[in-house]
UniProtKB/TrEMBL annotation:
It holds the Pfam family ABC_tran. This is ATP-binding cassette domain-containing protein. Keywords: ATP-binding, Nucleotide-binding, Transport. It comes from the Bacteria. CDD domains: ABC_NrtD_SsuB_transporters (cd03293).
Amino acid sequence: MLDQVKDSYIRVSGVDKRYGGSDASLVLQDINLDIRKGEFVSILGPSGCGKSTLLKCIAGLEDVSNGSVTTRGLMVDGPPEGLGMVFQRDMLLDWRTILENVLFTVELQGKASAEMRARASAQLARFGLGGYENRRPWELSGGMRQRASICRALLTDPDILLMDEPFGALDAMTRDDLNVEVARISHETHKTIVFITHSISEAVFLSDRVVILDRHPGRIVEILDIDLPRPRQLSARETPKFGHYSSHIRQVFTKLGIFKNA
Ligand SMILES: Nc1ncnc2c1ncn2[C@@H]1O[C@H](COP(=O)(O)OP(=O)(O)OP(=O)(O)O)[C@@H](O)[C@H]1O
Protein backbone atom coordinates (compact mmCIF):
# COMPACT_ATOMS: atom_id res chain seq x y z
CA MET A 1 0.00 0.00 0.00
CA LEU A 2 2.81 2.40 0.93
CA ASP A 3 4.59 1.73 -2.39
CA GLN A 4 1.35 2.32 -4.22
CA VAL A 5 1.07 5.79 -2.66
CA LYS A 6 4.73 6.48 -3.48
CA ASP A 7 4.14 5.59 -7.13
CA SER A 8 1.07 7.78 -7.34
CA TYR A 9 1.95 10.48 -4.83
CA ILE A 10 -0.19 12.73 -6.97
CA ARG A 11 -2.89 10.86 -8.89
CA VAL A 12 -5.10 12.54 -11.47
CA SER A 13 -7.71 10.06 -12.53
CA GLY A 14 -10.21 10.51 -15.38
CA VAL A 15 -10.38 14.26 -14.82
CA ASP A 16 -12.65 16.43 -16.94
CA LYS A 17 -13.00 20.10 -16.16
CA ARG A 18 -15.57 22.64 -17.35
CA TYR A 19 -15.93 26.11 -15.97
CA GLY A 20 -19.61 26.91 -15.46
CA GLY A 21 -22.60 24.65 -16.11
CA SER A 22 -22.76 21.21 -17.73
CA ASP A 23 -23.21 22.75 -21.20
CA ALA A 24 -20.01 24.85 -20.84
CA SER A 25 -17.17 23.69 -23.09
CA LEU A 26 -14.64 21.17 -21.81
CA VAL A 27 -11.31 22.69 -20.75
CA LEU A 28 -9.71 19.37 -19.72
CA GLN A 29 -10.73 15.96 -20.99
CA ASP A 30 -9.99 12.61 -19.38
CA ILE A 31 -6.67 13.52 -17.77
CA ASN A 32 -4.91 10.52 -16.22
CA LEU A 33 -1.54 11.06 -14.60
CA ASP A 34 0.35 9.36 -11.78
CA ILE A 35 3.26 11.31 -10.36
CA ARG A 36 5.80 9.49 -8.18
CA LYS A 37 7.16 10.84 -4.92
CA GLY A 38 10.24 12.96 -5.64
CA GLU A 39 9.54 13.14 -9.35
CA PHE A 40 9.85 16.31 -11.45
CA VAL A 41 7.05 16.49 -14.00
CA SER A 42 6.52 19.34 -16.46
CA ILE A 43 3.21 20.08 -18.12
CA LEU A 44 3.89 21.50 -21.57
CA GLY A 45 1.34 22.77 -24.04
CA PRO A 46 0.07 25.74 -26.04
CA SER A 47 -1.64 28.73 -24.52
CA GLY A 48 -5.16 27.98 -23.33
CA CYS A 49 -4.79 24.17 -23.28
CA GLY A 50 -5.62 24.06 -19.57
CA LYS A 51 -2.20 23.77 -17.92
CA SER A 52 -3.02 26.22 -15.11
CA THR A 53 -6.45 24.65 -14.69
CA LEU A 54 -4.84 21.24 -14.21
CA LEU A 55 -2.44 22.64 -11.63
CA LYS A 56 -5.31 24.34 -9.78
CA CYS A 57 -7.23 21.04 -9.69
CA ILE A 58 -4.14 19.36 -8.16
CA ALA A 59 -3.81 22.24 -5.68
CA GLY A 60 -7.46 21.93 -4.65
CA LEU A 61 -8.13 25.48 -5.85
CA GLU A 62 -10.60 24.27 -8.51
CA ASP A 63 -13.09 21.41 -8.34
CA VAL A 64 -12.95 18.78 -11.07
CA SER A 65 -16.13 18.18 -13.11
CA ASN A 66 -15.49 14.43 -13.42
CA GLY A 67 -12.87 12.08 -12.06
CA SER A 68 -10.68 12.65 -9.02
CA VAL A 69 -7.37 13.99 -7.75
CA THR A 70 -5.52 12.49 -4.79
CA THR A 71 -2.28 13.50 -3.13
CA ARG A 72 -0.52 10.99 -0.86
CA GLY A 73 -3.55 8.72 -1.29
CA LEU A 74 -6.02 11.32 0.06
CA MET A 75 -8.78 12.90 -1.98
CA VAL A 76 -8.13 16.56 -2.83
CA ASP A 77 -11.14 18.71 -1.99
CA GLY A 78 -9.28 21.85 -0.90
CA PRO A 79 -5.61 22.88 -0.66
CA PRO A 80 -3.78 19.87 0.88
CA GLU A 81 -1.23 20.17 3.67
CA GLY A 82 2.43 20.26 2.74
CA LEU A 83 2.00 21.92 -0.62
CA GLY A 84 3.80 25.04 -1.86
CA MET A 85 2.88 27.10 -4.93
CA VAL A 86 4.79 29.55 -7.12
CA PHE A 87 2.93 31.56 -9.75
CA GLN A 88 4.01 33.43 -12.88
CA ARG A 89 3.34 36.74 -11.14
CA ASP A 90 5.35 36.76 -7.96
CA MET A 91 2.41 37.96 -5.81
CA LEU A 92 4.71 39.96 -3.51
CA LEU A 93 2.98 42.71 -1.56
CA ASP A 94 4.60 46.09 -2.21
CA TRP A 95 4.03 47.45 1.28
CA ARG A 96 5.79 44.56 3.01
CA THR A 97 9.53 44.02 3.13
CA ILE A 98 11.01 40.97 1.38
CA LEU A 99 11.34 39.14 4.71
CA GLU A 100 7.74 40.01 5.63
CA ASN A 101 6.61 38.76 2.23
CA VAL A 102 8.39 35.46 2.71
CA LEU A 103 6.67 35.15 6.12
CA PHE A 104 3.24 36.17 4.79
CA THR A 105 1.76 32.70 4.27
CA VAL A 106 2.90 31.36 7.65
CA GLU A 107 1.49 34.51 9.27
CA LEU A 108 -1.89 33.80 7.63
CA GLN A 109 -1.66 30.25 8.99
CA GLY A 110 -0.85 31.57 12.48
CA LYS A 111 2.53 29.81 12.35
CA ALA A 112 4.86 32.84 12.41
CA SER A 113 7.58 32.45 15.04
CA ALA A 114 11.14 33.52 15.74
CA GLU A 115 12.24 30.20 14.32
CA MET A 116 10.32 30.82 11.09
CA ARG A 117 11.85 34.30 10.86
CA ALA A 118 15.34 32.84 11.23
CA ARG A 119 14.52 30.17 8.68
CA ALA A 120 13.19 32.81 6.24
CA SER A 121 16.41 34.84 6.60
CA ALA A 122 18.55 31.75 6.05
CA GLN A 123 16.46 30.79 3.02
CA LEU A 124 16.81 34.28 1.52
CA ALA A 125 20.58 34.12 2.02
CA ARG A 126 20.68 30.72 0.35
CA PHE A 127 18.85 32.18 -2.65
CA GLY A 128 21.28 35.06 -3.00
CA LEU A 129 19.03 37.59 -1.27
CA GLY A 130 21.00 38.01 1.96
CA GLY A 131 21.02 41.72 2.79
CA TYR A 132 17.72 42.33 0.95
CA GLU A 133 15.43 41.28 3.81
CA ASN A 134 14.36 44.83 4.56
CA ARG A 135 13.99 46.01 0.96
CA ARG A 136 10.58 46.36 -0.69
CA PRO A 137 9.68 44.23 -3.74
CA TRP A 138 9.87 47.22 -6.11
CA GLU A 139 13.55 47.64 -5.24
CA LEU A 140 14.36 44.16 -6.62
CA SER A 141 14.75 42.82 -10.18
CA GLY A 142 12.19 40.37 -11.62
CA GLY A 143 14.53 37.43 -11.00
CA MET A 144 15.16 38.47 -7.39
CA ARG A 145 11.42 38.86 -6.80
CA GLN A 146 10.78 35.39 -8.17
CA ARG A 147 13.56 34.00 -5.95
CA ALA A 148 11.77 35.59 -2.98
CA SER A 149 8.49 33.97 -3.96
CA ILE A 150 10.22 30.57 -4.23
CA CYS A 151 11.60 31.19 -0.69
CA ARG A 152 8.04 31.88 0.48
CA ALA A 153 6.76 28.65 -1.10
CA LEU A 154 9.60 26.62 0.46
CA LEU A 155 9.48 28.16 3.93
CA THR A 156 7.42 25.42 5.55
CA ASP A 157 9.38 22.75 3.67
CA PRO A 158 6.42 21.37 1.67
CA ASP A 159 7.15 18.08 -0.01
CA ILE A 160 5.00 18.97 -3.03
CA LEU A 161 5.82 22.09 -5.03
CA LEU A 162 3.51 23.31 -7.81
CA MET A 163 5.02 25.93 -10.11
CA ASP A 164 2.79 27.71 -12.63
CA GLU A 165 5.07 29.08 -15.32
CA PRO A 166 7.19 30.84 -12.73
CA PHE A 167 9.85 32.14 -15.12
CA GLY A 168 7.70 33.06 -18.13
CA ALA A 169 8.08 36.80 -17.57
CA LEU A 170 11.87 36.76 -17.02
CA ASP A 171 14.68 37.48 -19.48
CA ALA A 172 16.49 34.44 -20.93
CA MET A 173 19.64 34.74 -18.78
CA THR A 174 17.74 35.11 -15.51
CA ARG A 175 15.52 32.24 -16.54
CA ASP A 176 18.54 30.00 -17.19
CA ASP A 177 19.91 30.92 -13.80
CA LEU A 178 16.65 30.06 -12.03
CA ASN A 179 16.30 26.82 -14.01
CA VAL A 180 19.62 25.70 -12.53
CA GLU A 181 18.38 26.77 -9.08
CA VAL A 182 15.16 24.76 -9.40
CA ALA A 183 17.08 21.73 -10.74
CA ARG A 184 19.30 21.99 -7.65
CA ILE A 185 16.30 22.16 -5.28
CA SER A 186 14.78 19.13 -6.96
CA HIS A 187 18.01 17.14 -6.85
CA GLU A 188 18.89 18.03 -3.24
CA THR A 189 15.47 17.93 -1.59
CA HIS A 190 13.64 15.25 -3.62
CA LYS A 191 10.46 17.28 -3.52
CA THR A 192 7.69 16.23 -5.85
CA ILE A 193 7.49 19.07 -8.36
CA VAL A 194 4.88 19.83 -11.01
CA PHE A 195 6.04 22.61 -13.30
CA ILE A 196 3.99 24.39 -15.97
CA THR A 197 5.81 25.85 -18.94
CA HIS A 198 5.52 26.89 -22.60
CA SER A 199 9.23 26.29 -23.10
CA ILE A 200 10.38 22.98 -24.58
CA SER A 201 13.97 23.44 -23.46
CA GLU A 202 12.94 24.39 -19.91
CA ALA A 203 10.72 21.30 -19.71
CA VAL A 204 13.45 18.96 -20.99
CA PHE A 205 16.14 20.51 -18.82
CA LEU A 206 14.17 20.23 -15.58
CA SER A 207 12.07 17.13 -15.87
CA ASP A 208 12.02 13.42 -15.26
CA ARG A 209 8.90 13.34 -17.45
CA VAL A 210 7.26 15.85 -19.75
CA VAL A 211 3.49 15.69 -20.17
CA ILE A 212 2.50 17.08 -23.58
CA LEU A 213 -0.99 18.55 -23.83
CA ASP A 214 -3.11 19.40 -26.87
CA ARG A 215 -5.90 21.99 -26.68
CA HIS A 216 -9.67 22.33 -27.21
CA PRO A 217 -10.14 20.40 -25.05
CA GLY A 218 -6.90 20.03 -23.09
CA ARG A 219 -5.82 16.40 -23.20
CA ILE A 220 -2.63 14.41 -22.82
CA VAL A 221 -1.11 13.38 -26.14
CA GLU A 222 2.18 11.96 -24.84
CA ILE A 223 4.22 11.54 -21.68
CA LEU A 224 7.93 11.60 -22.48
CA ASP A 225 10.60 10.17 -20.14
CA ILE A 226 13.71 12.36 -19.96
CA ASP A 227 16.72 10.20 -19.26
CA LEU A 228 19.49 12.74 -18.65
CA PRO A 229 21.96 12.48 -15.74
CA ARG A 230 21.53 14.62 -12.62
CA PRO A 231 22.60 17.02 -11.26
CA ARG A 232 22.04 18.92 -14.50
CA GLN A 233 23.98 21.96 -15.59
CA LEU A 234 23.09 24.22 -18.52
CA SER A 235 25.69 22.41 -20.64
CA ALA A 236 23.25 19.45 -20.69
CA ARG A 237 21.33 21.45 -23.30
CA GLU A 238 24.20 21.03 -25.75
CA THR A 239 24.13 17.22 -25.68
CA PRO A 240 22.73 15.16 -28.58
CA LYS A 241 20.21 13.49 -26.24
CA PHE A 242 18.81 16.86 -25.17
CA GLY A 243 18.52 17.85 -28.85
CA HIS A 244 16.75 14.58 -29.59
CA TYR A 245 14.12 15.13 -26.85
CA SER A 246 13.53 18.74 -27.91
CA SER A 247 13.14 17.88 -31.57
CA HIS A 248 10.79 15.01 -30.73
CA ILE A 249 8.52 17.40 -28.78
CA ARG A 250 8.66 19.94 -31.64
CA GLN A 251 7.56 17.20 -34.03
CA VAL A 252 4.63 16.31 -31.77
CA PHE A 253 3.49 19.96 -31.75
CA THR A 254 3.98 20.19 -35.52
CA LYS A 255 1.78 17.11 -36.05
CA LEU A 256 -0.84 18.68 -33.80
CA GLY A 257 -0.75 21.83 -35.97
CA ILE A 258 0.52 23.94 -33.08
CA PHE A 259 3.89 24.70 -34.74
CA LYS A 260 3.47 25.67 -38.38
CA ASN A 261 7.11 26.26 -39.32
CA ALA A 262 9.14 23.66 -37.41
N1 LIG B 1 -11.95 30.83 -13.89
C1 LIG B 1 -12.24 30.57 -15.17
N2 LIG B 1 -13.50 30.69 -15.63
C2 LIG B 1 -13.83 30.40 -16.90
N3 LIG B 1 -12.93 29.97 -17.83
C3 LIG B 1 -11.67 29.83 -17.44
C4 LIG B 1 -11.24 30.13 -16.09
N4 LIG B 1 -9.91 29.89 -15.99
C5 LIG B 1 -9.52 29.48 -17.23
N5 LIG B 1 -10.55 29.44 -18.07
C6 LIG B 1 -10.51 29.02 -19.47
O1 LIG B 1 -9.99 27.71 -19.51
C7 LIG B 1 -9.12 27.54 -20.64
C8 LIG B 1 -7.76 27.06 -20.14
O2 LIG B 1 -7.15 28.10 -19.36
P1 LIG B 1 -5.79 27.86 -18.59
O3 LIG B 1 -5.40 29.15 -17.97
O4 LIG B 1 -5.91 26.68 -17.72
O5 LIG B 1 -4.82 27.50 -19.81
P2 LIG B 1 -3.22 27.55 -19.89
O6 LIG B 1 -2.82 26.41 -20.73
O7 LIG B 1 -2.66 27.63 -18.52
O8 LIG B 1 -3.00 28.92 -20.66
P3 LIG B 1 -1.70 29.89 -20.66
O9 LIG B 1 -0.57 29.04 -21.11
O10 LIG B 1 -2.06 30.93 -21.67
O11 LIG B 1 -1.54 30.42 -19.27
C9 LIG B 1 -9.08 28.89 -21.35
O12 LIG B 1 -9.98 28.86 -22.42
C10 LIG B 1 -9.53 29.86 -20.30
O13 LIG B 1 -10.20 30.96 -20.88
